[in-house]
Amino acid sequence: MSLAPKARDAAKAYYVWRHYNPNSADDPLAAWSAGYEAGGRAMLVRSATWAGLKPTIEDLLEALNRHLIARERDQLDQDAERWALSNADAEERAIRHLDDEQEALPF
Fold first, then answer.
1. What is the pTM of this model?
2. Residues in Cβ contact with 34 at an 8 Å cutoff, skipping those fewer than 6 apart
3. Which of 20, 26, 37, 58 is 20 to 30 A away from residue 77, measured at CA?
4. What are the two backbone dihedrals, phi and then psi, of residue 84, each rounded to the nearest 5 degrees?
């Protein structure tokens, strides 16, 4: 089972730190402090990445809403056109068959 890239990077960072700080590697407080500082730096980098993501997501949501509204408007236009054509077709049939016998109704 392989580790995720971030986990491998964190493990690698520990061994790099240990290589450059051989006297502090056996001190748990020094190791913990170094890890805490590295985590803080990583958090700042990640939050900076997320900060730029918010406007992009908002722009994508706005574009999606515009698309959905346009698609609904187009569907309503098509439905209205079909309705108008069906009414026009019915009127045309009524005019053509005006001289013919009227349709026999069951009541």
1. 0.41
2. 17, 21, 24
3. 58
4. -65, -40
